[in-house]
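Beta-defensin-like domain-containing protein (Chelydra serpentina), 60 aa
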Amino acid sequence: MSMLPLLINMLFLSAEFSQAQTLSWLCRRRGGVCYFRRCLPYNLRPISRCSNEDVCCRRW
């Protein structure tokens, strides 16, 4: 019985990791780069999200 919560957590973590990989792939396909929380260089603008905390940025 104690293995069930562990298996459920592993399932949710693997699903979240899979979604993050897909979003970062879409970002690169659009010509962007994933940055943590904000676009750092001044000549980048946000175009989408790579994950909950990562932002997809592209040059102007």
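Residues 3-59 form one domain. The mean pLDDT is 81. ok done for today
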